[in-house]
Amino acid sequence: MNIIRLSYKISLITILSLGLLLTSCESTELDLAENPNQLDGDQSDPDLFVNSIQVDFGKLVERFGAIGAQVTRIDNMFGRDYQNTYSPSDFNDVWSGAYQSTGVSFADQNGHNQTFNGILADARALEPIAINNELYHHLAISQVIEAYVIVTLVDFFGDIPYSEALQESDNFNPKVDDGALVYEAALNILDDAIQNFGRDVSAEPLNDFYYGKDWDKWIKLANTLKMKIFLQRRLVDANAITSFNDIVATGNYIQDITEDFQFSWGTNVIQPDNRHPRYANNYEGDGADEYLSNWLMNLMSTSDDPRIRYYYYRQTNVVPGAEVAPNEETLSCSLESPPQHYIDGGFTFCFLNNGYWGRDHGDDDGTPPDGFLRTTFGVYPAGGRFDDSSFEGTSQGDGAQGAGITPILLSSWVDFMIAEVAMEEMNDAGAMTALMNGIDKSITKVASFGTRDSSANLDFEPNAMAVDTFKNLISTNFMNAITPEQKWNVIAEQYWVALFGNGVDAYNFYRRTGYPTTLQPNIEPSPGGLIRSFFYPADLVTNNSSVTQKTDTDQKVFWDDNPDSPTFPVAN
Question: CA 220 to CA 194: how far, in whole Å?
């Protein structure tokens, strides 16, 4: 390995030197036989460690996924100035979730308590126990999750502390490692995990929250994560596409919906609250807390996308400025004129038809009394209500009661990865096939969530004809596209729709390709360039003298060699 395997032992002092603050709040852990948030330094039950790693991983991906989605218009971003929309302190929680060794609690962006143990610390503590007791499947699960975590940290922050961060030593200020080396470490960890999944073990993990102890699916996941890594670094690795295609040729990667990698949430409200965070934040006594993206809702509405009633629940069928007169109190922008750059680009502004009530990209106006009016999250993936045109204000317990998922790596997304490679190889036919496969799998998966809302009138589900009409529209758009840019836009827009629920890969794709160029720009005419990497967490730079805060968010991660912002991408 380019980064030497980390020591089996762990030093709490070294981890704390990363600047991870401890607070005390109620646990929101899943209702496990043992609460992993109660782990302390003297406990060494490998099942507790594996439980903790898996649960905290689901939470961490949910947080990273929301941030990536906001930047790329899959979700709404609240902030007109890119550099100042996300402050260094906003990332203390995800940094703690990745590194911290004992339960750390925080209030998320909506004031709801979340608790992390620290994935990398638990993984490192588990390692010697698993090896000494021949618990290789325990170890392999933690290795796959570790690989995803460290790659995602690089994708969002660039160079990160790794080789010196989780060892027993007197180094209180672990240095950052080059992101390229961390990527290499992740590939080696995944190779180790594949070997460990194939080994005989003395005992199996008590819980596998992802694949139910189907180790063949875990191996497919590990291979698919390698494909993701190769694709993400293809701009700086001449062999990346060959390595990607070599795995595709084996067929041993995620291809079917039954192999999807996702974290499932429950329906408990308290002790602990294990509902999907988007449900818990928006199905409350005061109505919805979050705004949804006007850009994505408009894209789906105007194309009659069959997934739209699963993604969004409309609490009203009219929006001020559209079906009814403008209303300064509930939608102040309905009385405003669109900014000139919206007019010039032909972008929708402020309001949409048919009750789709959201916000434009970067709109940071105040919050009016619209909690029971704005469109909120539906049954997929948040476990909310299926939109059966009932147009009612939502409340706690509605719909699927929060029993949703956090998608992490789905079979439909893999098809879009294959489509990207085909486009790079100028293989339009291959890209078209992969595009349509991805759409088909996405629609099938999303539609399966309708029955989770037992109160819904499923007569409003799209029928086969509606699905076929939509797929024919997309295939025609791709075939009739004259330029490569137009074809890229068709693929990227549909990739965005399929990624709803996790914008990590959208953020990477956008920096890697610059598509789609059709994204609604920030409502501010001069918001600065797209965030190429985020500021380091405040706790890290405050407490680790080896780390210097970035001067801005224009610094690129190692695999991003595209032109500087704001000229790249086109939409900022």
Answer: 9
What pLDDT is stored for residue 185 in this prediction? 98
483 sits in the region (left: phi over 0; alpha: psi -120 to 50; else beta) called beta
The pLDDT tens digits for 415-472 are 999 999 999 999 999 999 999 999 999 999 999 999 999 999 999 999 999 999 999 9
CA pair distance 532, 568, nearest whole angstrom:
10
Is the CB of residue 443 less than 8 Å from the CB of residue 500? no
379 touches 386 (CB < 8 A): yes
Task: Name residues of the chain where pLDDT drops below 50.
Answer: 1-42, 102-116
**pLDDT score for 169:** 64
Neighbours of 118 (CB within 10 A): 28
3-class DSSP state for residue 169? coil
Q: Is 107 helix (H, G, I), strand (E, B) or coil?
A: strand
Could you give the CA distance from residue 144 to residue 511 in angstroms, rounded to a whole number?
25
> How crowded is the C-beta side of 29, counted as CA atoms within 13 Å?
27
Helix, strand or coil for residue 161? strand
Q: How far apart are CA 92 and CA 89, in angstroms?
A: 5
Angle at 506 (CA atoms; ends 248, 551), nearest 5 degrees = 125
Cβ neighbors of 196 (< 8 A, separation 6 or more) are: 136, 137, 139, 140, 143
Query: Do 198 and 155 meet the contact criterion of CB atoms below 8 Å apart?
Result: no
For residue 106, list its beta bridge partners. Answer: 114
User: Where do we find the tokens 């170890």?
Assistant: 139
**Cβ(491)–Cβ(442) below 8 Å:** no
Distance between CA atoms of residues 196 and 143, nearest Å: 9
Q: Using an 8 Å Cβ cutoff, are 412 and 255 in contact?
A: no
Cβ atoms of residues 409 and 228 within 8 Å: yes
For residue 41, the tally of other CB atoms under 10 A from its CB is: 10
Question: DSSP characters for 454-521?
Answer: TTS-GGGS--HHHHHHHHHHHHHHHHH--SHHHHHHHHHHHHHHHTTT--HHHHHHHHHH---TTPPP
pLDDT of residue 167: 74
Residues 6+ apart with CB under 8 A from 53: 117, 119, 122, 123, 126, 141, 142, 145
Q: What is the pLDDT of residue 168?
A: 64
DSSP-assigned states of every residue in 319-350: -BTTTB--BTTTBGGGGSPPPHHHHHHT---S
Report how far residue 533's alpha carbon sits from residue 6's, in angstroms, rounded to the nearest whole number. 26
Backbone φ and ψ for 184, nearest 5 degrees, come out as -65, -40
DSSP 421: H
Q: Which residues contact 482 (CB under 8 A, 6 or more apart)?
A: none
Asked if residue 169 lies in contact with residue 153, where contact means CB atoms within 8 angstroms, the answer is no
Phi (first) and psi of residue 312, to 5 degrees: -125, 140
Cα atoms in the 13 Å half-sphere on the side-chain side of 427: 12
